[in-house]
Amino acid sequence: MHFKRWITAIVALPLVMLLIYKGGTLLFAIFICMVCILALGEYFRIAFNKAERSKIRIFQISAFIIGPIIILAAYINSFDIILGLISLNLIVSGLISLRYFKTNPLVVELIARQVFGIIYIPLFLSCMVLIRNDVDGIAWIFFLLTLVFAGDTGAFYVGRLFGRHKLCPAVSPGKTIEGAIGGLAATLGAGFIFMNFFLKSLPLGPGILFFLSIGVVGQVGDLFESELKRYAGVKDSGSILPGHGGILDRIDALLFAAPVAYFFKEYIFC
Questions:
Q1: 3-class DSSP assignment, residue 234
Q2: pLDDT (tens digit per residue) in 68-126
């Protein structure tokens, strides 16, 4: 398990870093579109059972269309289009549901889960594209990934070595309070190092608040995805990444961290 985990990271990480550094904003947005589509597919397998998926196929198709367009709207920095697409998705879903409600009143619940998926994945991922669009976007994307990766790695290994007290056993029995503290400490350490070398102009006080915020919301994002999987009775969201599970398993913390990073970058560090 650990061998596969590290091999996957060693192979994939340099490619992702090269794409971020050399690929340009458009290629990065296209890459995020691909991640969005894969993550949405995994989300639908988690959020809907097989019988439900057959009933909402048209809602899935609309999500696979609107999701990437939200990402591309972020590429052109159009908040109006992003908001319009989210609204359009709900309106279209509501319109389609009228056909199915008589025979399946639960269609309202199915729509709610589809709309949630649009917010959870495309909208949150679009924040990464908005961050990348800025002049210092490359540094900030690496900054965000470094913080999330450090927190995830610190929580995993500190939890395995020193974990004794369960953090949230009803959701994820393997996660511990010691691991959570280790993850926060790793996030703080990685944040100080990265800021000292690459973003020296950032003030220290808000920086500490930023590191702690990313550390906390990243772990919440991880637990939340575990909650979804426990609700669906599945272990991993997918198997596309050996040793890591699915795309959603790998980006669960990042999904919650990206909007927070965008907020800090635009409104706290501005």
A1: coil
A2: 999 999 999 999 999 999 999 999 888 888 887 877 777 888 888 999 999 999 999 99
Q: Which residues of 217-254 are buried (b: 16+ CB within 10 A; e: fewer)?
A: bbbebbbbbbebbeeeeeeebbebbeebbbbbbbbbbb
Listed residue (6, 32, 27) closest to 258, CA to CA = 32
pLDDT at 236: 72
142 close to 132: Cβ distance less than 8 angstroms? no
Please tell me the distance from the alpha carbon of residue 190 to that of residue 201, in angstroms, as a whole number.
17
Token pair of 199, please?
Answer: 């973003």
Helix axes of 177-198 and 137-162: crossing angle, nearest 10 degrees: 150
| Residue spans per domain, the chain | 1-133, 136-270
Write the Ramachandran bin of 49: left for phi over 0, alpha for psi from -120 to 50, otherwise beta.
Answer: beta
Going by the DSSP 8-state scheme, the letter that residue 239 receives in this structure is S
- Does the pLDDT of residue 4 top 70, yes or no? no
Beta-sheet strands, E only, within the chain: 166-168, 172-176
Q: Is 26 exposed, middle or buried (0-12, 13-18, 19+ CB in 10 A)?
A: exposed
Helix (H) or strand (E) holding 78: none
**Residue 246 pLDDT more than 90?**
no
Task: With beta carbons less than 8 A apart as the criterion, state whether 129 and 262 touch.
Answer: no
CB neighbour list of residue 111: distance below 8 Å, 6 or more residues apart: 59, 90, 93, 94, 97
Q: Which of 2-6, 14-18, 249-253: highest mean pLDDT?
A: 249-253
